[in-house]
Amino acid sequence: MVDKALGDKIPEFGKSKGGDQSVGLTNLSAFASGPGIKTFGEVAAIIAVAVFIIGGAEFAIRFYEVPQYIMPPPSEIVAALFTDFHFIGPHLVHTLIELFSGYAIGASIGLLLAAIITQFPFAEKIVAPYILMLVTTPMLALVPLLILRFGFGYEPRIIAVALASGPMVMINAATGFRRVDLAKIALARSFGASTFQIFLKIRVPMALPMIIVGLMIGAIFGLLTAVGAEMVGGGFGLGNRLTTFSATLKMPQFFAVILVLSILGILIYVFFFLVGKKWASWES
Amino acid sequence: MSGTGTSKLVVDNATKYYDTKSGPLHALDNVSMQVKDGEFACVVGPSGCGKTTLLWSIAGLHSLTDGHVLLDGEHVTGPHPQIGMVFQEANLLPWRNLDKNIEFPFEIKGQKPDRKHIDHLIDRVGLTGFGGKFPRELSGGMQQRAAIVRALSFNPSLLLMDEPFGALDAFTRDEMNLLVEEIWLETRKTIVFITHNIAEAVFLSDRVFVMSARPGRIAKVFDIGFERPRTLDLLASKEVFDLVNEIKAEIEHEPSQAKEEAAADAG
């Protein structure tokens, strides 16, 4: 029996690599461009720039007496984050619940679809335009409709997060699964590997760098959508806090929420960066 | 082990067409060859002549359009547990360290790795202590050593080697050729070795099968009788020089004929 992937392809090794071979997590990473922070001078430079930017903002805002309702100084934002955290913390939990539930649903469906669809190039061609539509349509636009149907609870937000993150995961994972290295498949096949073993031991590891990129982009899009959906309607979540604080001109608290969201985004990025370093570093 | 006498491997009238966008591509044309048990056979030919296609067909990775392959008298119709393969450019899995790469065949077969045998082989090729290294951390020669260990790890009786040292520099290639001969002398496995380097073929083999340009056919077979173990001095000898030139001439006078046939096929 001859394996389907090897089928009747001409064994050309050099040309078997897809055009997207070099796409990896590291391409998206500012951290990965260098050998890492090492010298005292580098650390000093990073701290100096941070002090300059944050300190400069603090100074400029105070010097020009910028009104608080336009832009509070950084010190007041950080102060508000700590003193008023009890106003923010519970809403952070709501946002995280929406993010995790929606992302878990969206990412797993996205991964599964990517794995299946790439095995059938013809089916992929048929489905591609709809996937592209899902990727490019802002899912926030659907939130009012979802609220009409599901009310002001978690459901519309979770659905929006799943709809935003799923296609992102899928389109990137599919790019990964489409990478075919004939020689590696032939290797596994020469030991008698089944199609499923080839998928598990060759195709999945080869796709992993792109899968991790997809999971990261999906998670960040999920966060954006969760907050956006909370701003559209409902009485809880960090997005809801943003609209409430801005409506009541509580700008230090407003920016404290923005700060929390930035930290959340950076944590997502760093998490997937580390995952990529652990599981996909063979690529670079 | 049946009616084919001492022939370990029989390729009988192997013909192969590939379907391509520009029509069928005639890769192999009635290739027949017999390799004796324990023999070291090399196949040489110009690039694109179907050497790899022939090897993949022997390994059961490809189906033949016509003809068949017999191993120990039995039809090879798919991957065979008695066949080990060494690929071009090592073909190690970059996400696995050397140990995991070498144990990969056992993982696929669902068997416990034969660590004793593997460690012996690792020691034999001089890779002891490198088990935790990843392929990218090793030189091309070391990667190919690991690939040889991987192919021998499950103790196949037929070893197929597909231009294994083509990407290596001349010095490393010489070193690897000596290593392959030593291992062959110790294990006496049947080896089919593909190369476009005629000197390498002459140095290694008992017999050299010369393939014509596409569509690949066996144009001529040369018996190589030099004593074993062979040394690198042999490569500088007059006999080898003459033999290499003779084989070269055989390959060079072939293409025109093959091209005419290819043109006739296309037309």
Please describe what this structure looks like:
By secondary structure, chain A is mainly alpha-helical. Chain A contains ten helices and no strands. Chain B has 267 residues and is of the alpha/beta class. Chain B contains eight helices and ten strands. In chain B, the strands form two sheets. In chain B, strands 6-7-8-3-9-10 form a six-stranded mixed sheet, sandwiched between helices. A four-stranded antiparallel sheet of chain B has the order 2-1-4-5. In chain B, helix 6 links the parallel strand 7 and strand 8 (190-195). In chain B, helix 4 (115-125) packs antiparallel against helix 5 and helix 7 (198-204) packs across helix 8. The radius of gyration of chain B is 19 Å and the shape is globular. The N and C termini of chain B lie far apart (44 Å). Classes of the chains: A mainly alpha (284), B alpha/beta (267).
The oligomeric state is: heterodimer
Rg of chain B over CA atoms, rounded to whole Å, is: 19 Å
* Sheet/helix structural class of chain A: mainly alpha
What percentage of residues of chain B falls in helices of 4 or more residues? 25-40%
Whole-number average pLDDT of chain B? Answer: 88
Q: Helix- and strand-based class of chain B?
A: alpha/beta
Helix content of chain A: over 70%
Strand order of the largest sheet of chain B: 6-7-8-3-9-10
Question: Taking Cα atoms only, what radius of gyration of chain A do you get, to the nearest Å?
Answer: 23 Å
The helix/strand order of chain B is EEEHEEEHHHHEHEHEEH
List the helices and strands and how they pair.
The complex is a heterodimer of chains A (284) and B (267).
Chain A: H1 40-63, H2 74-83, H3 85-117, H4 121-136, H5 143-150, H6 155-177, H7 182-190, H8 195-232, H9 238-247, H10 251-279
Helix pairs in contact in A: 2-10, 3-6, 3-8, 3-9, 4-6, 5-6, 6-8, 7-8, 8-9, 8-10, 9-10
Chain B: E1 7-20, E2 23-36, E3 40-44, H1 51-58, E4 66-71, E5 74-75, E6 83-86, H2 98-102, H3 104-109, H4 115-125, H5 140-152, E7 158-162, H6 170-187, E8 190-195, H7 198-204, E9 207-211, E10 218-223, H8 238-266
Parallel strand pairs in B: 3-8, 3-9, 6-7, 7-8
Antiparallel strand pairs in B: 1-2, 1-4, 4-5, 9-10
